[in-house]
Amino acid sequence: MIDWTAWYGLPVAIGIALIAALIVIGVVAVAARLAARRRAGARVLISTARHPFRLLVVMLAVWAACSLTLTDEVWRPKLNHGFLIAVIILGAWFLTALVNFTLGAVQSRYRTDVADNRLARRVQTQLTIVRRLVGVVFSVIAIGAILLTFPGVQAVGTSILASAGVLSIVAGLAAQSSLANVFAGVQLAFSDAIRVDDVVIAEGEWGRIEEITLTYVVVHIWDDRRLVLPSTYFTSTPFQNWTRSSSELLGSVELDLDWGVRPSELRAELEAILARTTLWDGRASVLQVTDAVGGYVRVRVLVTAVDAPTLFDLRCYVREQFVEWLHANRPDALPATRVRMAEDAAPRERTAALEGDHQGLFTGTPDSEERASLFTSSMPVVPPQR
């Protein structure tokens, strides 16, 4: 019979506890691998919750071994307190991993790489914010639980609750900007103002919403720059959302042409251009003359596409095709500047009148004529002396 109170009792108990923990971990690992063969989601659960689960099982086993064998009244309470804090931390980590796995499994059902993905982008945005909130909430609960394990904190608990009103006011004033961004981030997630992968115009830049956090939003600009904006920007500043209700858009192409252009020919060519490309979604195509002043005829073409990038490419394609067609078939319709020269009937009479009325620095008076002679008379040349 082993004497668990002897000096060798604690190492033996810890060894047995570790063996038992390894057996439990091995059984759970085999069950998880068998489940992973049938369901792909089990692999994600194994990768996210494996480390906190193993550490938690080992910690609980060692704690039980120490509690059953350690009889020292001085070290036993301190050791139990340390194990309790460690179990609280590992338990919060494990629960966070489980919740994140569950939310991630729900997110994987909503794909954003399809044409009509408005609902998917909305769910992705909301679940992303919820996952971040879960991490914050579990961290706060774990910190609170750890603090409550100290007797001194329990004694001052009543005083802290009594002064909670004053502390909340002071904290609110000190962190007004940060709290405003946090509340704005939650509002953006559930108000459906913006979603992940939305196309927006913010600060004059065109880009897609790449990430939404509790305090800031990352916009992926078209040239691979990242525009980081506080969450309050999207709740207090007007911005354009091109995919608010759908991704389909209408765009325009404007051309300034000569008066020799024929709109009917342009309409026929527009139909031929759109028939040669898959960028056009077939919803609408309009060609109109919107202005005809100042020597030019302004032609506006309206076309539609499934999303903003496709619309940009379609507009460039239509513009290029019209330029090629005008050069090849209707060069007279290219913009030109005309100047009309009018013949003057009496140029000499007008010139004489202007010369007679002109009063200048060296004409008009005897003094002026004398002053002019000083500048216009020939200067004598003195030959050099030998």
Describe the SSE topology.
Blueprint: H1 9-38, H2 41-69, H3 75-108, H4 118-148, H5 151-155, H6 157-162, H7 164-174, H8 176-191, E1 199-202, E2 205-212, E3 216-221, E4 226-230, H9 233-236, E5 240-241, E6 249-257, H10 263-275, E7 285-291, E8 297-305, H11 308-329, H12 347-357, H13 366-376
Antiparallel strand pairs: 1-2, 1-5, 2-3, 3-4, 6-8, 7-8
Element-level helix/strand string: HHHHHHHHEEEEHEEHEEHHH
- What class, by secondary structure content? alpha+beta
Helix content: 55-70%
N-to-C terminal Cα separation, in Å?
146 Å
> What's the total count of β strands?
8
- Biggest beta-sheet profile: 5 strands, antiparallel
Shape from CA axes?
Answer: elongated
Spans of at least 5 consecutive residues whose pLDDT stays below 50 are none
How confident overall, as mean pLDDT?
77
**Total count of helical runs of at least 4 residues:** 13
Q: What fraction of the residues are assigned to beta strands by DSSP?
A: 5-15%
Side by side, the strands of the main sheet go 4-3-2-1-5
What is the radius of gyration computed over CA atoms, rounded to a whole number of angstroms?
41 Å
What does this structure look like?
With 386 residues, this protein is an alpha+beta fold. Among the domains are: 9-109, no CATH class; 249-333, Alpha-Beta Plaits (2-Layer Sandwich). Helix content is 58%, strand content 13%. The chain is built from 13 helices and eight strands. It has helices at 9-38, 41-69, 75-108, 118-148, 151-155, 157-162, 164-174, 176-191, 233-236, 263-275, 308-329, 347-357, 366-376, and strands at 199-202, 205-212, 216-221, 226-230, 240-241, 249-257, 285-291, 297-305. It has a five-stranded antiparallel β-sheet with strand order 4-3-2-1-5. Strands 6-8-7 form a three-stranded antiparallel β-sheet, covered by helices on one side. α1 packs antiparallel against α2. The longest helix is centred in the N-terminal third of the chain and has 34 residues, at 75-108. The protein is elongated, with a radius of gyration of 41 Å.
